[in-house]
Specification:
about 35% helix; 2 domains; six-stranded mixed sheet; Rossmann fold; about 375 residues
Length: about 375
């Protein structure tokens, strides 16, 4: 069915169709619309599930953990400081191998207080064992959420998935949305280590040095296996519903001499910049990174790279730029832009490409001598 929706409403509709048994909810701007919509579905009888309004984000993830460990499909949503407040439980969910799905509406961290888009909130959780996907349109927010449940609950994965969408520039923007009938695309959840009252077990007990590392390795093994599961899920989604996704979304990269690497809504802005650069005789392309974890294999050999980070690791640099250096051997022109919702237009991105200096870093809007 074709309709018009915000990114938040698209996520909520996908969750409704996935049919979770438990939703734990705590409001925070700009995510609140998601849990409000879920509450309406439950109140109206459109969704049969247990809706738990908790007192904090930490409790929201704790409730999802408690429900998931019984073998129930679970969902929550958060943003920014809410995600940071969850941090302890975010680690616990991955370590316990629980396929929780969470929408995170990317928002800057304070102080000063800021409710606009930035990726640093989710990037601070990148090493917890969660899979992370970043979307750029309302349609993709819906599609990625449906796929997240199937991926998280796959027997070769059984890790939580975080669906990230930019605050306001996607969460609240109205775009066309084509919903589908998922049918059996998301199979029933079967958690092999679910609590069984007939076979009592201990969970999360003290684990010594001779065993602990094995649990860490098991998360890594499943993260590696998720590469195949993600690819298969995206292929099956394309076959059934006609929309194709990859680990990246490449635009005019085939013959590009310089590639702009970015994430989220800036990736769509970069595509417009690429068209303008091509008109000016610059053979540019755009590569929007969709999956941060697992980090995909990228072919950037023989090309100049301009990477736009909507984040920063103080004392180190743009997080995506650092990853490209470590994983791809690239020496990118690193641009820090869009922090706290700073406006970045396609003209600005085209300017980054024209002013590129491999190996250098530019803070957009900051004088070079500052």
């Amino acid at each position: 069915m074709l309709t018009i929706a915000t990114g938040n409403k698209a996520v909520a509709e996908a969750v409704r169709q996935a049919g979770p048994g438990v939703i734990a909810a705590y409001p925070i701007t700009p995510q609140t619309e998601i849990v409000e919509q879920m509450a309406s579905y439950v109140n109206d009888g459109v969704l049969k599930c247990e809706y738990i309004p908790v007192e904090s984000e930490h409790s929201a993830m704790a409730a999802c953990i408690g429900a998931s460990i019984t073998g129930v499909r679970t969902f929550t949503a958060t943003s920014s400081h809410g995600l940071l407040y969850m941090h302890e439980m975010v680690n616990w969910a991955a370590g316990a191998r629980l396929p929780v799905v969470m929408a995170n509406v990317n928002r800057a961290l304070g102080p000063g207080w800021n409710v606009w888009a930035e990726h640093t909130d989710a990037f601070q959780e990148r090493d917890t064992g969660w899979l992370q996907v970043y979307v750029s349109t309302v349609q993709e927010a819906y599609d990625a959420t449906l796929m997240a449940f199937r991926i998280a609950e796959h027997q070769d994965v059984l890790l939580p998935v975080m669906v990230n969408l930019d605050g306001f520039t996607l969460s609240h923007i109205m775009q066309s949305l084509e919903t589908v009938d998922p049918g059996d695309f998301i199979p029933p959840l079967r958690l092999p280590h679910a609590i069984d009252t007939a076979n009592p077990c201990g969970y999360g007990t003290l684990t010594g040095p001779d065993e602990y590392f094995k649990f860490r390795w098991d998360i890594e093994r499943s993260m590696r296996d998720s590469v195949r599961v993600i690819a298969e899920t995206q292929e099956e989604f394309s076959r059934r519903f006609g929309r194709k996704y990859g680990f990246t979304e490449d635009y005019r990269c085939e013959d590009a001499d310089v590639v702009v690497v970015s994430m989220g809504t800036l990736g769509k802005e970069a595509e417009v910049a690429v068209d303008a650069l091509r008109d000016d005789g610059v053979k540019a392309g755009s590569m929007r990174l969709r999956w941060l974890r697992p980090f995909p294999k990228l072919d950037l050999s023989g090309r100049e790279v301009v990477v736009i980070d909507r984040d920063y690791s103080f004392g180190s640099g743009g997080i995506l730029a650092d990853a490209l250096r470590a994983k791809c051997g690239a020496d990118p022109f690193s641009v820090i832009a869009g922090l706290g919702g700073q406006e970045v237009t396609y003209d600005d991105i085209a300017g980054f490409v024209k002013a590129r200096k491999p190996g250098k870093e530019l803070w957009f809007g900051v004088k070079p001598d500052v």
